[in-house]
Amino acid sequence: MNAAEQKLLLAVLAQPTAPFRENQVKDFAFSYLAQRGIPYFEDPIGNIVIGCPGANAYRALLNGRSREPVRVFIAHMDHPGYHGTRWLGPRRLLAQWHGGSPVKLLRGSSVWLADAQGEFGTGQISRATLGTHGHSMATLEITLPSDGLSQRQRPPASTLYGGFMFRKALWTQGRRIYTRAADDLAGVFCVLATADYWHKHKTLGKAPFIGLLTRGEEVGFVGAIGHFELGWLPAAKRPVCAISLEASRTLPGALIGKGPVVRLGDRRTVFHNNYLQVLTGIAQKYLPGGFQKRIMDGGTCEGTATTAYGIPTIAMSVPLGNYHNEGFEGGPDSRGFRGPAPECIHMDDAAGELLLCKKLLAPGLPWDAPWSAVRTQLRKRLTAYRRFL
Q1: CATH code of the domain occupying 3-77+172-372
Q2: What is the pTM assigned to this prediction?
Q3: Across-strand partners of 254?
């Protein structure tokens, strides 16, 4: 990862976001893409499609006559958070939580507030209720500081959103990055940086690249489902390979700082064995000893949605500490086990994932015969032992 890419990573990770309130991330992406002349458009659901200037060009790419698969790199722009519902008093806001969350030590925790124009303040949780499943908050009451908004200044409650706040939106300690939302802004970074690499390298001029930045993933892949329901990707006439990019809960065999994870599957499903073999070969060549490989069953990802729509899928993850701001691993600013805590990723894991994304754009990868080298090895073994048969 070069200095410009590292700067981009930190800038993306600092953006405020929540389900269906991805406007700040979208504005950042629009500015970044426009400055570099990278084509993009919004689909009818508000997802960002990168690599084509409009829907017609996108459909033409998907329906081209080629055996080279279109690489569709997918990441989501949201992170669990709340939407304001109504004011309970001059400084008290009632809100609904969307997505996963900590379930303990909630009272007194700090949150940030934003509206369509951006962040404008902080508050504290004075009361919270958990959903019937007990895995996340359902509602919360937020108390603003005494010098907060006057009644005349207060925006409509429904325009407000936010999430957990810590000492800063983002800070680093060594190669570790602590942030309020790495899931899935780390993936958004990877898509943007890969788009820039694709656009700059003229030798990749015809590489079939698409970036898809989606909305509302944290409540069940809603933006991705809306995109697939348009019919463009499922009806593609040329091969397609979806690449789900996530920041996923650290697990045994998927540890922070040990490299990106070649994700064999998620909690719901395994992924495409042939295309996974292509990805594994790239990882073995360019990150020998520097990547991890396992089923990431700490949760589901948009790879489940692409698979459900019949799109061949592979996936990568950056190991994530304190998944959904829940203090599983603890560390700086953690309020305790399963209480609010900043998410944590490693700079080198993000760099490794970006490298693998770039290498997936290379022409001539063995998409049609990914196991041929393995078959050759197996035949040699048969030859060596045939005399015993």
Answers
A1: 3.40.630.10
A2: 0.95
A3: 251
